[in-house]
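for the recovery benchmark. tokens below, seq after
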């Protein structure tokens, strides 16, 4: 049993990878899934963004310093879900 499958119970699953929690509903199979937007904090937004792009995600916004003490990026996965990635920097961007 792989890491993803060992947490599946009654058709629902949850897997934690790094600082991302992935939730999945396995049954019944829906023809049209609802899209989601998720904001996650990661240790290194640049590395996480590059991993997402390498895995096939589409870029919605490259890593950028923000005035609210965060470095952020955003991607869209193959299922149409939007992922907002952020790292708290503690620095005010100018």
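predicted aa per position
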């Amino acid at each position: 049993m792989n890491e993803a499958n060992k947490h599946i119970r009654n058709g629902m699953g949850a897997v934690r990878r790094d600082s991302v929690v992935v939730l999945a509903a396995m049954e019944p199979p829906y023809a049209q899934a609802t899209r989601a937007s998720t904001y996650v904090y990661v240790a290194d937004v640049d590395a996480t963004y590059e991993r997402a792009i390498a895995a096939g995600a589409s870029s919605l916004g490259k890593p950028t310093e923000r005035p609210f003490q965060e470095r952020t990026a955003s991607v869209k996965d193959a299922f149409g879900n939007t992922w907002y990635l952020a790292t708290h920097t503690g620095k005010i961007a100018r």
